[in-house]
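Example 9 (inverse folding). The structure is encoded as follows.
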């Protein structure tokens, strides 16, 4: 079987929207949640439960905010901001886009 400690296993599981229980299994067996790209992969998959799991376990919500805005995933944008992501740290272009998404969705 696949080695859970191999960072590519976890990245691919997150990227291709596999189940949260399987991700937890990998982490319980040594997978590193600090693997680069996990949060943005979860956002690309539009998978809020996995995004929540990653943020609650130390992922920086600011790292994924730009991706969530670019993809227009309001529920993920809202969650990341609730968890401390700061849209003011982004370029003006992304600040305006976030505001438009919020007005449309909110």
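The amino acid assigned to each position is listed next.
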């Amino acid at each position: 079987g696949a080695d859970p400690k191999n960072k590519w296993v976890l990245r691919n599981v997150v990227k291709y929207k596999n189940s949260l229980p399987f991700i937890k299994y990998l982490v319980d067996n040594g997978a590193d949640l600090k693997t680069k790209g996990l949060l943005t992969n979860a956002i690309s998959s539009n998978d809020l439960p996995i995004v929540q799991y990653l943020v609650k376990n130390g992922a920086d919500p600011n790292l994924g905010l730009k991706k969530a805005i670019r993809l227009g995933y309001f529920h993920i944008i809202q969650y990341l901001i609730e968890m401390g992501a700061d849209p003011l740290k982004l370029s003006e272009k992304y600040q305006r886009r976030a505001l438009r998404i919020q007005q449309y969705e909110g």
